[in-house]
Amino acid sequence: MRKSPYFREFGIDASAIPAGPGRVPFSAAAAEVLEEFQPAVVSFHFGLPAPELLERVRRWGAKILSSATTVDEALWLEARGVDAVIAQGLEAGGHRGHFLSEDLGMQVGTFALVPQIVRAVKIPVIAAVGIADAKGVAAAMALGAAGVQIGTAYMLCAEATTSAVHRAALKSDAARVTALTNLFTGRPARGIVNRLMRELGPINPAAPAFPLATAAIAPLRAQAESLGSGEFSPLWAGQNASGCKEVPASLLTRELAGALEYALQHCDPGEAPQAARP
Amino acid sequence: MRKSPYFREFGIDASAIPAGPGRVPFSAAAAEVLEEFQPAVVSFHFGLPAPELLERVRRWGAKILSSATTVDEALWLEARGVDAVIAQGLEAGGHRGHFLSEDLGMQVGTFALVPQIVRAVKIPVIAAVGIADAKGVAAAMALGAAGVQIGTAYMLCAEATTSAVHRAALKSDAARVTALTNLFTGRPARGIVNRLMRELGPINPAAPAFPLATAAIAPLRAQAESLGSGEFSPLWAGQNASGCKEVPASLLTRELAGALEYALQHCDPGEAPQAARP
Lengths: 278, 278
Hints:
10 helices; 2 domains; oxidoreductase (chains A, B); globular; alpha/beta; homodimer; nitronate monooxygenase activity (chains A, B); TIM Barrel; three-stranded antiparallel β-sheet
């Protein structure tokens, strides 16, 4: 990436870039740590780990989840025995979970993805999709989801480790415009558009491969953030940040759970009159 | 576009390409024709016509609709007095209606778009979004839509002028994979991926500008279709063709209208318990 002008602008020594990956895949060492705590649910992203690692997680009785961005990925996950599949619509913030095809043009919006996965698999489908509030929960349930997974809406909660520049961006009008970008990690992820994304283009083939881009951008990001700027930081957010609230996470959870319960009781379109039975 | 190998393959004389645009914008001549019939609703795409043309349509009392693909476009349309705005999510089939920005990376999925437009404007919002069935109608209403606009689901109805190759594609597994393409008209539109899109790439900067690409592709398309092939035809479809039914349009309409009525009566998430009021 053409980062040197930025490094000059912020007085950064390029040799300060740390070596090595910014993330590591799930490993035997990680499984060993988890085994002690035996979490009831383990949710993977970018597909699934190797069969022997997956088996190890299953042995302590954990329910296994993973994300599908297409019907094909949902079928692939079901065939490998996941307990539920998370349908990740194109609207979702952060990293796309796609693993069978890299073609972003094939990625599907939630409204089309959820009902087609529900129809294709027998396991429960969790909608993860820029759900911002009670309306979003009710809509996801109407589409046939068994539950919802919500990220962006929690990012202003006190419990979230969202950085100061990230919080400021989420509260601003800038949050209305997001894009998929590979600049910050090397893999496409959705974030609020900032100066780096505007100037280099959000998807730039010159970005280091995942997950090496994280380290490459680290000194620039740190320097800019120390000056109060989020223009070089990954400002992950879904396409609907309007549900972000500065409330305790427990309060937001109770509100959304109330909507879930209401939707389950009142809002089953299966009960609507059926005129056409082809 | 590198079409000459295809022209050779199908024995087409390139001089057979008709000159001129495949579509013309709304004009005084078109308004004159419409004026005779005084349609109660006139729905525009790609923004709005010039103010004097719009005024002419308004004079016979027509309700004016147009599509918004972003919150900014919805606000722009509301400021120009449209009676309702159609929220066109990224899932929709056929031409994207975007008119304030050409940047496809900024296009928003229905699940995120509808509630944000509902919140931003005071006029009714119609969701147009790969709604395939009663579940989709209920979900759109839950997101705050005042109504829905449905295209793809009607394309197998007897009344639709859908071509034979297009019908075959909609009924096949191929309908599960769509992409935005500019190859067939010069503007990005969503269709089922076929050979032309695979081989040239769905978005190709060499495609003639809108609407000239229609004529450029016409002889190849006609020749391939005469051989029963849809590999060079625009196979417009939304990201959820699973609701297509070979039933009379009236039957499908009654089914979907029943779902709309049911959703209006039973499924208002505004009635769900509200825990968090920030």
